[in-house]
Structure formats: C-alpha cells, structure tokens
Amino acid sequence: MNLIDKKYCDKFSTIKDIFLYNESLYINGRNVEGIFYDFVVYDNLLFTYNLKKEQTEFYNINTSDILFVKKEYLGVRPDLDNRILKSNYLGQADFEDKEYWVFIKKQTFEIERMIEIDESNQNFYLVSNKSFLSFSKDSLYLKNIDNNQLIWQHSFSDLLEGEEIKQHGEIIVHKGILYIYLADKRNNKNTATIAIDVETGEIKNKYKGFVGKLFLYKNKLYTASYYKVQILDIETEQISEIDFTETLKTKDLQIHWNNFIVEDDYIYFIDGHWATTNKMGILDLKNKQLLWETSIEINDGINNNIREIKISGNRLYAHCSDKSLHIFEKEE
Q: How far is CA 61 from the centre of its chain?
C-alpha cells in the first residue's frame, strides 16, 4: 500500500471527492455555500441540512447540482433500512416541534408517509414494509409498522441465561435471519451470537463463544479481536478460527475488536486493545500471514489514534483523531 493523499476533514465519503471540514461541505472539490454539520451519501445522492440557509438540501453527487430544497429538516437513513427491495427512502423529519419517521419518494422526494416518533418506536430498524425491529435496554422485539402492535419479543436474559445480559455492537439481518451478539456483564466467558427468524421470532441457533462485532461478507460472519479471527459460515453453520498470535505479537500488533473490515480473503484492521492506536495492518486469511502494516503520525495532543478505516476499490482510507485523512492505494 502506498500513501497517495492526505487531507483534513470531520467526515468523508469514499464515493467521489466529498468531505466535511470545519462546517464546510465539499462536493467534487467544490465548496458548497453554507454551514453544515453532517451529510449522507446514498444512491448517487447527497442528503444534508444547511444551517446557514436553514433548509434541507439534496445534491446529485455526479454533477454537484442541487435537486431538492425544503425548509424543514428532512434526513435519509439508509443505515436503518434493511429492506431487500426499497421502493422509497426511509428518513427522519422535524415538523412543528415533532419528530417523525418518514417514507420519501425516490424521484420527487415527496413524503409518502409519516410516523410520529415516541418511546415505543424511537429505536427503529426497518426490516420490511410492514415491520420494524426495536430495542430496549434488556429486550428485542418486532412490531407492526401500521399499528405498532407487538409481533414477537425476546428479553436478552431469555436468549442467553446469565446474571446481567447486554447486547453489544450492531445487529445483522441476512436472508431473513437476525444475528445479535450478547454477553454477560458479570461473566465474560458467558457469550453468544443468537440467530433469530425475523418474521416469527423463532430462535434458529445459539453460537456460544462466537463473540464480538459482527461483520457480514459473502454469506459469512466474522469477529476479530486481539490475535484471533472467527468465521461463521452461514450456509453450513460451521465456525472456524484463525490464530495470528505469533504473527502479530512479533510486530506488537492486536486487532481492535470494533475496528476491522473483511474483503475478499483479507482483513483490514486498526491496532488496539481498549482503545485504538496509530497503527493498522492487513492480514491474509487464506495464507495466514501479515501482508502490510504501518503507523501514522497523528498530532491531536490527546489520543493520537486512528478512528476509522474504509475500503473502496483499491484504496484504503484511514481517518484519525487529529482529523487527518490518509488515503492509501494498493500496489499493482
């Protein structure tokens, strides 16, 4: 991997040259007039709110043209939308001091439907046009989107017996099955990933000891931490483990449990135990070797760590605590 670029930003997209820095938004290198705190890139569009003009703005990321303006706040939430077929966008909106989940037409950006957000649906994860998953601090449940009626419910203590069961990381929904990682706060050996049929709530399997941040790639779930990578083949339900202890210890590296990406036969990771450091690397899962590792000079005066990594094509992006973005490219 060769370092090809470095810039500073608060947030970035690997699609086109889009980034946010000091409340300024740049699309394809062009500074957009206004004040911005955030943006979402999805479906070749950029969705944002302009604080200076007090309006929602949607942009075409290929041409940088503005396509839609609305005075009220209207945001798109692809991160909460797990529908296989998406005929519209799921979003959030503010109207008359109330917040709503909304469904937005793709072509015109008109709001098709609004659902007021309250305590019963504030934790919202859309799995179909008819139902959504939601969480409390100790339970998981599926509800009907039309009438908010409960379809099924599981307490975490029912899913995994223990003293103080907590859910960690993101949930994964794949081919109608929900995967959730649970751990006993009072017994660190009591852990499991639970597989649940989304529609019926039926418990399909409990994978004891398969723990950590769940990462889905091509019908396989991955977890990684310290020196080991676990792989759950969803088709065969078999779990395998690759131990990189000898390889990583000699380089003074560990896989941070919450900061890794799997693509093809490689795992890209940030070094760290409780917190990340300024080091990262690439492991070859097939040949079981360390392909590449580097350290980045970071100067924020406090943490000096890599916060996030992303992969796009032959490029690796590393975003750091001093707001520096380091872009690496694979060698030919």
A: 21
Cα–Cα distance for residue pair 36/25, rounded to 1 Å: 6
Digit-coded pLDDT (tens) for 121-163: 888 999 999 999 998 888 999 999 988 899 999 999 999 998 8
For the stretch 24-68, pLDDT in tens is 999 998 999 999 999 999 999 999 999 999 999 999 999 999 999
Residue 221's alpha-carbon distances to 32, 54, 108, 288, 293, in angstroms, are 40, 42, 37, 18, 24
Using an 8 Å Cβ cutoff, are 79 and 90 in contact?
A: no
Residue carrying structure tokens 């944002």: 48
DSSP secondary structure of 158-217: HHS-SSSEEEEEEEEEETTEEEEEEEETTEEEEEEEEEEETTT--EEEEEET--SS-EEE
For every residue of 223-266, DSSP letters joined together read EEEBTEEEEEETTTTEEEEEE-HHHHHTTT--EEEEEEEEETTE
Other beta carbons less than 10 A from residue 115's beta carbon: 15
CB-based contacts of 59, cutoff 8 Å, min separation 6: 27, 32, 45, 46, 48, 65, 66, 67
Q: Is 332 helix (H, G, I), strand (E, B) or coil?
A: coil
CA distance 287 to 298: 32
Exposed, middle or buried: residue 215 (CB in 10 Å: 0-12, 13-18, 19+)?
middle
Report how far residue 43's alpha carbon sits from residue 112's, in angstroms, rounded to the nearest whole number: 19
For the question of whether the overall pTM of this predicted structure is more than 0.85, the answer is: yes
Nearest to 258 by CA among 220, 209, 223, 291: 223
Instruction: Give burial (CB, 10 Å; 0-12/13-18/19+) of 264.
Output: exposed
Distance, first Cα to last Cα, the chain: 9
**Which pair of structure tokens corresponds to residue 233?**
């083949």
